[in-house]
Amino acid sequence: MGWAVGKTDGWQANASYVTGAHSMKAGYQGNRLDQLDQTLTDATTCCTAHQGVPNAVTYRLPDFGHRTITNLQSAFAQDS
């Protein structure tokens, strides 16, 4: 069984300059994805005995998650 939790942030900016026969536009865009994927497994317990007397207990914890951070950035400029 697995699950994922994610958060996305985005931002953008642009500017234009226009005169009679000339125009220019430039901009920037960015995105950030922060995602946590986790696979859940059952915890296991094992008991070891020597001559019928328990002498050790081993407890295995479930798997832990994997975090992924992705940054995307772009810029543009156009002139006419």
Offer a quick outline of the entry.
The chain is mainly beta. It has strands spanning 2-18, 23-39, 44-50, 53-60, 66-79.
Describe the structure.
The two termini are 55 Å apart. The strands form two sheets. A three-stranded antiparallel beta sheet has the order 1-2-5, with no helix packed on it. Strands 3-4 form a two-stranded antiparallel ribbon. The chain has 80 residues and is an all-beta fold. The protein has strands at residues 2-18, 23-39, 44-50, 53-60, 66-79. The chain is built from no helices and five strands. 0% of the residues are buried.
Q: Which keywords apply here?
A:
0% helix, three-stranded antiparallel sheet, 80 residues, mainly beta, 79% strand
What are the SSEs and their pairings?
Elements: E1 2-18, E2 23-39, E3 44-50, E4 53-60, E5 66-79
Antiparallel strand pairs: 1-2, 2-5, 3-4
